[in-house]
TrEMBL record, chain A:
Name the record gives this protein: UDP-N-acetylglucosamine transferase subunit ALG14
Keyword entries, A-Z: Endoplasmic reticulum, Membrane, Transmembrane, Transmembrane helix
Xref: PANTHER family: GLYCOSYL TRANSFERASE-RELATED, UDP-N-ACETYLGLUCOSAMINE TRANSFERASE SUBUNIT ALG14 HOMOLOG
Any one GO BP annotation for this protein: dolichol-linked oligosaccharide biosynthetic process
UniProt organism field: Kingdonia uniflora
Membrane topology: Single-pass membrane protein
Xref: InterPro entries: Oligosacch_biosynth_Alg14
GO cellular component: UDP-N-acetylglucosamine transferase complex
Main subcellular localisation: endoplasmic reticulum
Signal sequence annotation: none
Family: Belongs to the ALG14 family.
TrEMBL record, chain B:
UniProt protein name: Glycosyl transferase family 28 C-terminal domain-containing protein
InterPro entries on file: Glyco_trans_28_C (IPR007235), UDP-GlcNAc_transferase (IPR052474)
GO BP, one annotated term: dolichol-linked oligosaccharide biosynthetic process
GO cellular component: UDP-N-acetylglucosamine transferase complex
Domain of life of the organism encoding this protein: Eukaryota
Annotated signal sequence range: none
Domain Glycosyl transferase family 28 C-terminal: residue ranges: 7-164
GO molecular function annotation: hexosyltransferase activity
Organism, as annotated: Kingdonia uniflora
Species classification: Eukaryota, Viridiplantae, Streptophyta, Embryophyta, Tracheophyta
Amino acid sequence: MNWKKVEIIPCCRAKPPTGYYALNSGGALNEVGGHTAEMLNLVGVLQNDKFAPRFYIAASTDNMSLQKARVLESSLVDQSGALKVKAAQFMQFYRSREVGQSYLTSVATTLIALVHAMRLMLRIRPQVILCNGPGTCIPLCLIAFFFKVVGIRWSSIFYVESIARVRRLSLSGLLLYKLQIADQFFVQWPQLQQKYPRAQYVGCLM
Amino acid sequence: MEGGKRVVFVTVGTTCFDALVKAVDNPIVKQQLSAKGYSHLLIQIGRGSYIPIKSEGEDGCLVVDYFTFSSSIADNIRSASLVISHAGSGSIFETVRLGKPLIVVVNEDLMDNHQSELAEELAERKHLLCARPQTLYQTISDMNLDSLTPYPPADAQPAAKLINRFLGFPDD
């Protein structure tokens, strides 16, 4: 993992990130709505002049998350004047795995999602990716990793495991952890950090 | 304590959780809630098929009402004196953030029941009480709301600091 750090730090000092994602997921509001709130709490404390422009991506089945992101963005504009109106864009994305979908059909839908993800990522070419599960972020992170390998774009990927995960990682989290695709892997409970030593404990985001 | 009205609000979110609705509709549970000083029971039944019995509260019984969905669950939580909820993280945090006493009832019928992890952890930290549908009456009769501690405010700064450090940005 360390070689990535060495590579990325000088690159970002020279040129600050010009794009980042908050990847959310949704569908049934109360079942996965927590993910969006956690992510937006984090986005709210990042320096919004350095992390710009911002691209928010949510699942196509999710109508609530982007609405919440818009509320956050308009509050950021209020704080810093009307200058940053164009600082954020909102996009929807084919979802690779619905809550409760079987793992086998997930493979097929993930392939379709990969194609869609490729188109989105070629358009945005982010330098910083902030994501949390479930499902939606996997194709985008895989593409980002592919971009790094072939030299299209070097991005830093930050994954935040949901606060709902106390003892075990989610499927998305486990994949990104095991494949070492996330540059930094954040968990919100100390028990998880003990089980997954490369993760970093950041306390509760919600 | 608006005019002595003390509401127990039950929510299953967008799920189907008949076991919880049945559990709170149980006469023993209602009697216990009444004995604990609650006057109203409002149940959000979601996609469930079990319909609880409405009651106008004759003879000092609980006033029981229900609805399926609402866009203003937050208002229901705000006006409640006690919330009994399914284990969804959205409902849990909405309630503890508003500082309302909460009993989370874990749905044992769910296959991948990672949600009980969160409820159990927060119960261990005394931010809420955790129950199963069949032990709800026990939890209510044993409950001491003074033993609950407020959930601390969320803090995203540690994560933001790590991100800034990784990218080589100075902290503010």
